[in-house]
Write a structure and sequence with these properties.
Length: 429
């Protein structure tokens, strides 16, 4: 048993404790960045560890100089005298205090906000910022501000007030382009970066400070320019589609006139021959009257039979292209000519609503009332209209509806609503 407490075992114990102390000290130094600060803590911890090692070495010498007899009944008293036991207790207390101090110091240091951390946070900001005291001395200048100063003055310096003076007075400078804006100072550098300038004042503990801020708005500004260009392009397309819709209406009118001329030309010869025959021989009176009646009807009504699905789908496509949605409540009548009048009214209403009222939606309501079709056409325009003057489109629409035996009314109760009534038993049936 003596070999367990001999010189070699004691030396191993001492070496282990010493190495443990060194490891704890290295961890403490590393985590607390001791090469920059906390020198006082380092000295205290080093002294405590030195005292601990010294006590351990003293105990080892005591053990080396003692002659221990295991036949003695007071082995424990010879092995560890009271003074030595007291020294070990004191050593343990000192050692645990040392460890507690290290752990507590690490915790407090971890939660401490250091000036280097604040500077690092400012340097990582995407915008240029600087704080200047009442004596016009810059107290803080982040990396982006240094970059901005260099891009403008071509010098590495903390002279923030120089570029502030240039921007505030809109002084001409080869490295700056001013972007027109009523409320803000916005500049563009030669490399394409765009900054918005702002200056504010801070009062801290009765001391006045000036905060200079250049926000990097390069991406936001480029997106706004791109959006404006697209909006202008859409507005131009909308105007072109409005003109195109007007042209379509005019072309349809020309087609109607052409069809009437072709029909009259085709039937006029037959009618003249039949009329001359009737005048000379008084024959085929009914046949002659039927020809004239048919001609008069053709002259007072559309000549072509409309395909409602095709015309309505074309109108919906053209209206959607102009940015105007058609809300149709009800069904078009089966009568092609009546459907043609309703679709024509919708086309005129869409053209006027988009062109004059900037509407984005047309509401069409079709209902049956006894022997009449009641049609109401309105839009979602926010423009207030108390009166309206009938132009070519509305005037021609009124003529067609009244020739078909219907009624046409324009209501102007802050917004325009077309009211149309068409007899189901019209002159076309």
């Amino acid at each position: 048993m003596y070999t367990l407490c001999g010189n070699q075992s004691i030396q191993r114990i001492v070496l282990t404790l010493y190495l443990l102390s060194i490891i704890l000290e290295i961890i403490y130094l590393t985590m607390n960045n001791m090469y920059k600060r906390k020198i006082r803590d380092f000295i205290i911890v080093s002294l405590l560890l030195f005292i601990s090692i010294s006590q351990i070495l003293d105990i080892s010498k005591i053990f080396q100089n003692q002659n221990i007899s295991f036949n003695n009944e007071v082995i424990s008293e010879q092995l560890m005298p009271k003074s030595t036991l007291f020294s070990c207790v004191i050593l343990s207390l000192i050692y645990f205090v040392c460890i507690f101090y290290i752990i507590n110091s690490l915790k407090s240091y971890k939660n401490e906000i250091k000036s280097s951390s604040i500077k690092e946070a400012f340097d990582n900001l995407p915008s240029a910022i600087s704080i200047i005291n009442a004596n016009h001395m810059p107290l803080l200048v982040n990396k982006r501000m240094y970059h901005l100063i260099y891009m403008i003055t071509e010098e590495y310096s903390p002279n923030v007030l120089e570029i502030v003076n240039i921007v505030e007075n809109r002084m001409k400078h080869k490295n700056i382009k001013y972007i027109e804006n009523r409320n803000d100072f916005i500049i563009q550098l030669k490399n394409g970066e765009i900054y918005k300038f702002n200056k504010s004042f801070l009062e801290i503990e009765a001391q006045l400070y000036t905060q200079i801020f250049f926000s990097d708005i390069t991406r936001e500004y480029n997106l706004s320019v791109e959006l404006e260009e697209k909006n202008n392009a859409l507005e131009s397309q909308k105007k072109q589609l409005t003109i195109l819709l007007d042209d379509i209406v005019n072309i349809k009118k020309e087609e109607e006139i052409l069809m009437q001329k072709m029909y009259i030309h085709a039937k006029l010869g037959e009618i003249i021959v039949a009329t001359n025959l009737y005048i000379r021989e008084r024959k085929n009176q009914k046949y002659c009257l039927d020809l004239w009646e048919d001609l008069l009807i053709r002259l007072s009504a559309p000549v072509e039979s409309k395909n409602e699905d095709t015309n309505l789908s074309q109108l919906v496509d053209a209206s959607n292209a102009m940015g105007c949605e058609i809300n149709l409540n009800g069904n078009l009548p089966e009568d092609n000519d009546m459907s043609y009048l309703i679709i024509t009214a919708m086309r005129v209403a869409i053209t006027n609503a988009v062109k004059h009222a900037k509407a984005t939606q047309i509401n069409v309501d079709i209902q049956d009332d006894d022997n009449n079709k009641l049609i109401s056409i309105s839009d979602n325009s926010t423009m207030i209209t108390d009166s309206i003057q009938e132009g070519g489109g509305l005037r021609d629409l009124r003529t067609k509806i009244e020739k078909a035996g219907g009624r046409f009314e324009i209501l102007c109760n802050q917004k325009v609503t077309l009211k149309i009534s068409l007899p189901i038993k019209s002159i076309y049936s």
